[in-house]
Amino acid sequence: MIELAGIRKAFNQGRPNEFWALNGIDLKIAPQQVTVFFGPSGSGKTTLLTVVGCLARPTTGRVRLNGRDTSGLPERFLTGIRRRTFGFIFQQFNLVRGVTAIENVMLPAYPLGSDWKELKERAGSLLDSLKLSHRRTARVEWLSGGEQQRIAIARALINDPEVLIADEPTANLDTALSKEFLGILESLAGQGRSLLLTSHDPLVVESSVVRRVVTLRDGRIVGDR
Amino acid sequence: MRTWIEKQKYLIDFTLSSMARRKVKNFGILFLYTLLVFLLASVMLFAHALRREAAATLAGAPDVIVQRMVAGRHDLIPPDYIYKLGSLRGVRKTESRLWGYYYDPFVRANYTIMVPASAGGDEVATGRVAVGQAIARRLALTLNGEIFLAAYSGELRSFTVARLLPHESELFTADLVLMSEEDFRSFFDYPVGQYTDIALTVTNPQEVHNIAGKIASSLPDSRVILRDEILRTYEAIFNWREGVVLALLSGAVIAFGIFALEKASGLSADEKREIGILKAIGWETGDVIRMKFWEGALISLTAFFVGYTAAYLHVFRFAAALFEPVLKGWSTLYPDFELVPTLDGFELATLFFFTVFPYVLATIVPIWRAAVTDPDSVMRGAL
What we know:
- The complex is a heterodimer.
- Chain A is of the alpha/beta class.
- Chain A has one domain (2-224): 3-Layer(aba) Sandwich (Rossmann fold), CATH 3.40.50.300.
- Helix content of chain A is 32%, strand content 27%.
- Chain A is built from seven helices and ten strands.
- In chain A, the strands form two sheets. A six-stranded mixed beta sheet of chain A has the order 6-7-8-3-9-10, sandwiched between helices. Chain A has a four-stranded antiparallel beta sheet with strand order 2-1-4-5, with helices on one face.
- The longest helix of chain A has 16 residues, at 175-190.
- The mean pLDDT of chain A is 89.
- Chain B is an alpha+beta fold.
- Chain B starts with a helix and ends with a helix.
- Chain B has helices spanning 2-21, 23-58, 79-86, 133-139, 170-173, 181-188, 208-218, 227-265, 269-280, 285-316, 324-327, 345-371, 376-379, and strands at 64-70, 73-75, 91-97, 99-104, 109-114, 128-131, 146-150, 156-164, 176-179, 197-202, 222-226.
- Chain A binds chain B through residues 46-47, 49-50, 55-56, 75-76, 79, 82-83, 88, 90-92, 94-99, 103, 107-108, 110-116, 155, 159, 167, and chain B through 2-7, 9-11, 14, 17, 21, 270, 273-274, 276-287, 374-376, 378-381.
């Protein structure tokens, strides 16, 4: 369970260009379901994801993860929670160029120092499940957009996180690839994972796999269904 | 512990793959770095080996040498000087010596010709000589071979090579020819009863300066040379020469410093983006810094070991061909000599400290600045 209480987030605070991206968010996100943050550009969707995913701290307000307050934790602890609890799929995929697909998948697990053989097997089976086993030794810059996204999904799953966070996952995909992504989403939801997405793509919002849509505008929640 | 080792292995593995992706930059730095260590280590190894060899050989030299001076020039010692010096209190032994120089125009090299000490076990029979390794090499001499030298009378003399002088003392014996007193006097037409100089052994080494004072007052036309002074002179010469070379190299050191600082510390946009990604996917600031530490350590340690090994081979296997004219060269005609390999732990540690540490630090400081950036900058597309 993720609970947000009175979340506000400012950028460039105290400067002339001060900007409040989130303006008082109160929200409870139930586990093991697909939740979408929906809204136009600049509505605060991505900022909300970074706060939930422990990538950033709120300026004011509290974030509770399974009852534990994470909003005031130092960076080191926050990183630990992020690594164990969340897997991220970025809009631009953010894969490390010049490195093979399987190495990209294994990267989040390196700081954990787990057994190399075991880690490689885990990464291999994730690539298999996403139908990418034939691309495991290819450099990521040689892959298509859809393949790159599946590598990013495998990377997000390598540490077996409870929550998967995806920022505008279909923004760089055509309809066919978007549908393929939604299929993967469905199977991940079927595994009992919580999924948090931002999107303004009707294909995603109207998908049957999505259980809840939270609409944002100007850093506030304006709809919840 | 096992997890920690595994983690370091992952970090090193990723560091190596990162370095391979930036081949030109990293190989450029590695090449220049290795070259710098090679140059500095060559100078240090060479000067140290020379000093050590000089000290080892001079350890067996006489305590005091007395020469006679006429008009500021070295002159022959008359027979009564030997008696006067021998009667000084504190002098245990006097030994009159015969030596001189000979220029061989065929190989364009100077030889030192000397009569060995009568009690030193180095005696050579009339008609025979013992020669230094460098002369033997230059003239391709072997045991029982013949060496031809032109006497002062103009007559060409032939001597049989009875012995080759040991390799260990080559710094001093490289150009040495030992012959009997009879041969020496006839070869140089040297006056009977007169000597080149006198070597003294003193009973108590603490008294050597007092004895030198007594000699100077009883024989005012003499020059007294102490063993310690010779050692100090050698030290000064080698230190000075090492200093000259290092001063010349300092320009290269500074140039490399600036280059390395810029290359190692300047992060490209690609590297910054990569750090942002690593942080966003769960790497701590410390992990990123450790990765960069390994990068700096791998480059600097490789450069240090390759550069030092190359310097060792350069000095002891290839006779320091690059620095020979400056560090050895008191005469362009001086015969070649090879140094006995030697390492000084303190100098090795000094070079290690002043080359490896600054580089590793130079790589870590900027990465620390980049690594503390918020991981959400990747999500917001700010990198």
